[in-house]
Fold:
Amino acid sequence: MPASKGMPPKPEGPGERVGHAVEQVGQVVEQAGIAVGQAVDDIGGYIRSQRESAQVSLRQLARTAGVSNPYLSQIERGLRKPSAEILQQIAKGLRISAEALYVKAGILDEKPASDVTDAVFADPTLTERQKQVLLDIYQSFRRENDKPVVLGPSTELPDHEE
Structure:
């Protein structure tokens, strides 16, 4: 029976609260499923665009990545979610960073951007593949420079004259 005007609403019983909680969990699970589906679609579309810009046929990429043509086609159409290992093989076949595919697939979080990465991504004259190659080189230089210099006991630093 509905609450009358001026009367407080009837308190929910334990069964009604559980039912409401189950309904909320169902909505969250449905939203997560949609997000996963979009990530699969996004990674598939991204792989297809990278393959096309690299002028590599589906058959060539499938052979290089060690997967079947139908399986790769299903990945590109968003029907299958590839494993991290398959993504790595696809990246190798496309000569792009596996990290870029992991980010697109939601396996890795995207690194915070820097002025250099922002500039590379903003350049409309570069293809996605060229941008990724530039950023891979940039990151390799950064990693190289971040390594500590270890001096052995017989190593002396050169004198600098000013």
User: Anything to note?
Assistant: Residues 35-40 have pLDDT under 50 and may be disordered.
